[in-house]
Amino acid sequence: MSAAAQVMQGQGAQPFLRLEHISKSYPGVRALSDVTLDVMPGEVHALLGENGAGKSTLIKILMGVVQRDEGSIHLDGEAVEIRSPLRAQALGLAAVYQDVTLAQPLTVGENFFLGHLPRKRGMVDWGHMRQETERFLRSLGIMTDARMRVGDLPIAQQQLIAIAKVIWGGAKLIVFDEPTALLTNAETDILFGIIEKLKQEGRCVIYISHRLEEIFRICDSATILKDGGFVRRVQVADVTEDDIMAMMVGRSLEAAFPHRPPTPGAVALELSGITAAGRLDNVDLTLRQGEILGLYGLIGAGRTELLRVIFGADPMDSGEMRIAGKTVVPRSPLGMIREGVALLTEDRKHQSLALQLDVHVNMNLVVSQNQGRFGLLEGGKEDAVTKRFIKALNIRTPSPYQKVLNLSGGNQQKVVIGKWLAADPRIVLFDEPTIGVDVGARVEIYGLIHRLADEGRAVIVVSSYLPEVIGISDRIAVMHKGRIMGIVDKEEATEEKLLRLASGLAA
């Protein structure tokens, strides 16, 4: 927290926000039970818990979207009632969600001055609007032309603009809900710089993220919820990731990766001299049946590019690929699917799922194209596929005909896994499989990946999270600028060694 916040806390100063003994029930469901949350001035406070823990309900109560059944809300020591989002805004409360809420047809400047356009001699002062908007954006490290239509900006840039607009409005407390889900590393650095600025100004931040590494980078304190109840409030400096995970799901991160003796079989995939101009440089790699090979590297290292070449989504310029000893030329994804290769992309919402369609349709997308006559399966077979994998993968959905859009991130990812397993692949490529899913769902996905290897499938897992890539892999290949810098056995893998290789240094 900021120096001022530390002094105030040391002197027993009151929190800016106190939610006390909050409870909320829906028909048949106790969403929150006796939850208390405090946020000090100048503090970044994490709100943590699995999907269904009660985080969203608590924030909806704070923002006036729903009303509590019991408990009280205090701002600066005074009891307040927040009956609507407008009342929350008037009290200086704001939230930034994953879904960008800007007016897409308007320019950046028009979004900032919406409802109070600057005027000069009775005309809109477009020059002043642009100047003031860009001046404020630059103060936050955001370099965007205020004349650009919001709808023409990349979605990550829109997210930063939405954050800037909330700050522009003078909010005293800002809730960030998974703010980095759409951001690159560079954009995440900009966001964290903005949050640091808010701290120094004495503003409060509630930060919600499934990425524990972010919590330890930016948060001062945390409240952990489980099954709608309050577990504990902690200072982040006093706990470890294992501590937080144990509080959230009842087991440590280490327990999520139980010892799995590797039992590699025959060579499933062999790459020799794979080169793609500007992306891959003479990549040699061997993957065996029953093996989980981690693929680690910094941004731009070529990990995703390698998976896309293997899957036939991008061309290679030279080299040879063999699957089970047979030379294969990866010309298209459909051809590689027929060779038994599956790719679970990092961006599941845009590249792996039809969000507006239901679980049943999504689950059969690959198998119907690959096996069905004229691209269709008989209805009975489709039903069997859906029921089988909903049960096998423990997909939490009220119905096979629920829109995928309405599922949690973890259950969406399990639908993607089921879609590919229905095609019975020999080689499964995962690109950041746990991104945007809660900690409990991560543990389930780790178990599914282990199960695939135990069934004799060959698995490659790309992950930017070092504890994950070390914990789940039998071996780890490290990439730097399109090249394999080294391959490290699990027993010898350390974060320091992998980072050195990823930076282009000798281990």
TrEMBL record:
Residues 17-506 form the ABC transporter domain. The keyword Membrane applies. Its main location: membrane. One of its GO terms (cellular component) is plasma membrane. GO terms for molecular function: ATP binding; ATP hydrolysis activity. Keywords: ATP-binding, Cell membrane, Membrane, Nucleotide-binding, Repeat, Sugar transport, Translocase, Transport. InterPro entries: AAA+_ATPase, ABC_carbohydrate_import_ATPase, ABC_transporter-like_ATP-bd, ABC_transporter-like_CS, P-loop_NTPase. It is found in: Cell membrane. CDD domains: ABC_Carb_Monos_I, ABC_Carb_Monos_II. It is a peripheral membrane protein. This is Sugar ABC transporter ATP-binding protein.
